[in-house]
Specification:
mainly alpha, 2 strands, two-stranded antiparallel sheet, about 45% helix
Length: about 200
């Protein structure tokens, strides 16, 4: 049983313990999680996937990610904003995604909001909430990693104020972790501080 510190992975290098349960997690942890993500469509995709993950395990979403991309036009904001009621019904019948009506509705509604923003506005808004790395303690164990921070609460409020749905403070923090606004890899993790 782990004490929450980094554990040896398949290659012997230490990793965050959550990353070791499946090969999918190892690859995601090593190659994506905590690496900077920029671009409105790319950030919209992460925002949508984190919203779909709410109440589920991340592996459920990760294993359906290609299905989500196919179903939601590659998460191109302009394309999803044009989805019709027929598209929503199609999505509700798509076994390649999580068929949750509220989350599907929010994904389309959020695209419609974002389609009216200037290019780069979503990227700028999200990244404006990245904390100064010098003010953050490096986590030694999983117990040192928060679920919510003042920055994620502020990001959640800023997005909601603009009409974005399904983005509470916990979802906003998961987005910040996944997109590299914070580096929550554990102190001895092989992926800590790895540049993109």
């Amino acid at each position: 049983m782990s004490d929450g510190t980094a554990l040896a992975g398949p290659d012997g290098a230490p990793r965050c313990p959550w990353a070791l349960s499946t090969e999918d997690y190892v690859a995601y942890h090593d190659e994506e999680w905590g690496r900077p993500v920029h671009g409105d469509d790319a950030l919209y995709e992460r925002l949508c996937l984190e919203a779909f993950q709410s109440g589920l395990s991340w592996i459920t979403i990760l294993r359906r990610r290609e299905g989500f991309r196919a179903a939601f036009a590659g998460f191109r904001i302009a394309d999803v904003a044009a989805f019709t009621d027929a598209d929503k019904e199609r999505l509700l019948a798509d076994p390649g995604i999580i068929r949750n009506r509220a989350k599907i509705e929010a994904t389309v509604a959020n695209a419609r909001v974002l389609a009216d923003w200037a290019p780069g506005d979503l990227d700028t808004l999200i990244w404006s909430h990245a904390p100064d790395p010098a003010t953050r303690q490096v986590p030694k164990t999983l117990a040192d990693v928060p679920a919510v921070t003042p920055e994620s609460t502020a990001l959640s409020k800023a997005l909601k104020k603009q009409g974005i749905r399904f983005v509470g403070p916990t979802t906003a923090y998961a987005l910040m972790q996944a997109c590299g606004l914070v580096d929550d890899h554990l102190e001895t993790c092989v992926a800590r501080g790895t540049p993109l």
